[in-house]
Amino acid sequence: MTDPMQGVFAVATTPFAADGGQDLDQLTRSIERVLGSGADGVLLLGATGEAMALSSQEQEAQVRHAVEVIDGRVPVIAGCMEYRPEDVIRRIEKAQQWGAAGAMVTPSFYGGLDADVAVGALEPVFAASELPLLFYNNPHSVGTDVLPEDLKPLLQHDSFWAVKETSGAPTRVRELNDALGDAVQVFVGADGLALEGLTQGASGWVAASAWLLPEQCVALWRAADAGDWGKAVQLWNALSGPLAAIEGNAAFISLIKQSLGRLGFEQGPVRAPLGTAASADVDALVAAIDGL
Predict the structure, then answer these.
(1) Rounded to whole angstroms, how far apart are CA atoms 136 and 79?
(2) Of 44, 38, 40, nearest in space to 68 by CA
(3) Is 136 helix (H, G, I), strand (E, B) or coil?
(4) CB-based contact 212:200 (threshold 8 Å)
């Protein structure tokens, strides 16, 4: 890739209306709020967006709607997560047709594959894709921790744009940069380790928390990108409490959605089988946000 996409990519929730369908008008409001705070991109159809609970028609409607609303102001990245590589390829082709600027992929989930097998299965995906691809290393959900050295075979493909690193290993961003060089961007994906990742040279932050706290997340990235580490640490000390509350909650998607509702951006419930965050947890998070 040339002209790399960097900065804060806010990971969208999927708001639901009273009838159970998507509330695309509410999605528009959230998009405008996030872009007004300076976010550099939007990622749709991730885990935070309950992608697996959406029908293919809902997924298409969401991406097409967001692309129309955003109208080229920032890149739109679409999650393309499937078990079979051929299905991932088809999802990427559809995302391109819908207007996405890039796609996010994971190793085949549930199988607990060895890393070399997982990467080998993605080789045809990266070879076929005409969109820039964000490799999402999410061992907690996928069952495979893909290490920096494991990703080197994908460097032969021009589609390999970036890595979203969510393993929780505190030095992994630096290790990825060392292994992959300047050709691939490395994004922090574990919100609770955002500052650590930025100090190690991350190209940005793919952040679920940026959908809830866009101004604060963007401010932290801007300070780090400018090398103003005194300001970055100050911002992080304020932000780390709310981020820990989000990341440490098993029902974090519900927690984000309910908190957005308290802020006037009603999201509706999460879809089954996701759990609902306790009211006390929502109260604590909203109080922490008020403290910001």
Answers:
(1) 10
(2) 44
(3) strand
(4) no
* pTM, to two decimals: 0.96
- The two tokens of residue 252 are 């974090």
Q: Per the structure block, which two tokens stand in for 48? A: 């935070």
Q: Which residues contact 11 (CB under 8 A, 6 or more apart)?
A: 43, 46, 48, 49, 206, 207, 208, 210, 211
CA distance 135 to 121: 13
Residue ranges with strand state E in the chain: 7-11, 41-44, 76-79, 102-105, 133-137, 160-165, 185-188, 204-207
N-to-C CA span, the chain: 38
Q: Which amino acid is at 1?
A: M
Write out pLDDT tens, residues 233-267: 999 999 999 998 998 899 999 999 999 999 999 99
- Residue 1 pLDDT > 50: no
**How large is the average pLDDT for residues 104-113?**
88
| Pick from 56, 55, 106: nearest CA to 83 | 106
Residue 135 has a CB neighbour count (10 Å cut-off) of: 23
Cα 79 to Cα 92, 170, 180: the distances in Å are: 9, 25, 22
